[in-house]
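ligand=zinc ion
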Amino acid sequence: MVTVTQSWDDGILDDVRLVELIRKHGAKATFNLNPGRHRLERYQGGKHKGHEVWNLSVHDVKALYRGPGLEVASHSVTHPHLERSSPGALEWELAESRKILEDWFQTPVRGFAYPFGSYNDTVKAELRRQGYAYARTVANVDTVFPPADPMEFHPSVHALNPDFWPAFERAKAANGVFYFWGHSYEILDEPMWQAFEANLARLCADPEVRWATNVELF
Ligand SMILES: [Zn+2]
């Protein structure tokens, strides 16, 4: 058996298609959101390799990330480099993001993903103090579960990395956890969407795979 979990960051428009695929194939996923970056209307937040990155509206967010198999986790309020934040700002980013998400979704929020994947001991200690269950890094190493430090929960591989299937096979051989992550705006065109859907379908068709959201593991 292998437990498969995935997470996607930043709450962007391309997540609409991603959530559809997750539902269609019966997978589970965690979405790491920054409530301070959503407004009443959608807006373009930037570009990635020529692809426009649109932030979802508050209404979109509340409607999209709901239902069986979906977890909402905090990615801070405003997506700063937390290790450079003042103590007051750090406390606020962790507490306020969770409070807003719990209000929007009327469900406990216990997970965290580090903006830019960056953190230090002070950030980890504040997460622990506030009662977060885990925090995801972007280390991309074969996932050890349970992690030695839940505030350094390392994913196995980026969702679009060529090492995706070898990393999956290693996790399966170890009866372990396979954890992939990414941003849906990195899926740039139709061939990439089809390749990603084929991966998702292959995982969902595997009788050895058991899906979990991040927080279900903890
Ligand atoms: Zn992010």
